[in-house]
Each structure stands twice: as C-alpha cells, then as structure tokens.
Specification:
Layout: H1 2-24, E1 34-38, H2 45-61, E2 65-69, H3 76-84, E3 91-96, H4 97-106, E4 118-126, E5 129-133, H5 142-151, E6 157-160, H6 166-178, E7 183-186, H7 190-198, E8 204-208, H8 209-217, E9 222-226, E10 253-259, H9 264-278, H10 281-289, E11 293-294, H11 299-319
Parallel strand pairs: 1-2, 1-3, 6-7, 6-8
Antiparallel strand pairs: 3-10, 4-10, 4-11, 5-8, 5-9
Helix pairs in contact: 2-9, 4-11
Length: 325
Amino acid sequence: MQHKLYKYLFLLIFFVFGSALAQAQPQAYPQRNIRVIIPGAAGDTCDMMLRLIGTKFLEKTGMSFIMDNRVGASGQLGLQLIAQAPTDGYTIGCGQGGNMVIIPLAYKKVAYDSFKDYAPIAMMATNFLALAVHPSAPFSNARDLINYGKKNPGKLAFGTNGEGAFLHFATELFRKEAGFTYHHVPFKTAATIVTDLIGGRIDAVMAAFITVQPHAVSKRVRILGVARETRAPNYPQFPPLNETVPGYTSGGWFGAIAPAGMSKEHIAFLNREMNAAMKMPDIREKAALVGLELHTQPPEYFTQMLKDDFEKWGKLAREINFKPQ
C-alpha cells in the first residue's frame, strides 16, 4: 500500500513539474503567419522586397507573410498602424527614408516617432537617384546643366514630388552643393513629374533611377548622371554625379521594422531569415534589375543609417531655412 502511495506521489510530482517546465520553455517561433503592414501600394519597393523575402520565409518556416497594404498620407497611415500593433512578433512592417526621416523633418505634427516607436529588423535595400533631362535640353552632362543654372538664375525648371518631399530635398542638396539656382515645379506624384519631363514642360528632374531608366532606353529622356559614389554595376554608362559635384550622393532606403517592444529574440530570428533570403542569387538578381542594392546587416546597421539620415537631411533643412509645414 505504502509502495503504491509513493508511486502515485512520484507521478503527481513528475506531472506538475513537467507541466511547469513545459510552460516555462519558449514556444517555437513562428507558429502562425505574420502580418506585414506596407505603408504604400502593392508593387512599391517595400511591397516587392517583402513579397520576395516572404517566398523564402515560407519555404523555410512553413509560415507566410500576409501583406497588408495601407495607402495614405505619404506612408504615415501605415506607420501609425505599425507603431500601434501588438509586439508578439506576428505584426511587422516596412519603413523608408521618405516617411521615417523626411516627413518628420518636413511636418510640424507627425503621429509617430521614428526612433521610439519602432524596432529596426533589417535594412533590406537602397536605391539611387538619377539626374534626367528632356532629350532636347542643351546639356550634354551635369556640368552643362549646372553652368546654365548659374548663368540663368531661376530659369531651369526642376520637377519634384512636392515641397518638403524627398525628391525636393535631394534636388535642394544638389543645388546647394553645385551652387546654381532653379525654378521649383512641385507635383503630387513622381510619375507625373516624368510625364511632364517627357512632354517638355519641365527641364530636369532628380528621380529614382529605375523610374527614368526605361524612358532613357526609349530616348524619351536623357540621364546625365547617377547620385552614387561609383558607377552602377549594371549601368556603367552613366557617370556618378559626384565626379562633378564632389560628395553628392542621394537615394532611398527600405527596411523591415517592428513595433517597439518586440522581443530581441524575435527580431534576431527575423533579421537572420531575411538576410539569408537576400543572399540567394534569384533574389539578388531580381533586386538588381530594378536598381536595388541589398544589405544583409544586423539591426544596428539600420539604426545607424536612420541616425545618419536624420543628421544629413536635418542639416540641409536648417541650411536652406526650410520651415516645417
């Protein structure tokens, strides 16, 4: 009888201790699909990159990235939703230089803090801008355009995607560093700028290379240079603008982010899996075709890039006496 009592007591202790131990063990992650909030339309760079990465993530984990495109207020709507999302590892998002740096510098009231409200996961990709003109413009290179702007103050019509938008800041940096003047023609969208450039209604634009490159192939625009430190590997025919304006580079970046408070373990896991996906040849090839350079660094690399961009564009805003709207 006593032997049976000890046996039952042992089984009870084993069951209680085993259950407690099982509950104390962290659950495998992920156990379900992950919602990905994209502060933009389907097909934009954030959307494209996370869809590509998502295919590899599904193969590796059996879980999908469920894309949730939230268009509105130049990305502010989507970023607010990311900031307010649960921190359990099952909602992440995407941020870019335009909405995480330029908007906070350009507007007095922004409903999120780019440093406090998000945890960087992975800096996925960067692109670069190109200086493009109408084919009939009397400029064979960037130096010709700059000299014209110096000799004809305010006559050179540059299109941007609006006062205080990224392309406006990039154009202002080029103007300031090169020492010329231009007439600012703001548009609502980058696509409209290129349409008017092709139509000859503006003289020049500083725009994403991949936006103007197809039109350069069809000879509807002419690219005078790219805003890179070196020539683009896939497009070596275009000279870097810093050969004419020393130090001038400009482009966008696109990174995966989480709401602040997500565990370091989940962030480390996602960073590792995303970087592994971006090292795969097919992903790299697809990214290169649209003018993207991929990055496979730890989250701290993203944090530093965010700080550097705030310093770079904040300094410009002060130097040109830009007043937040």
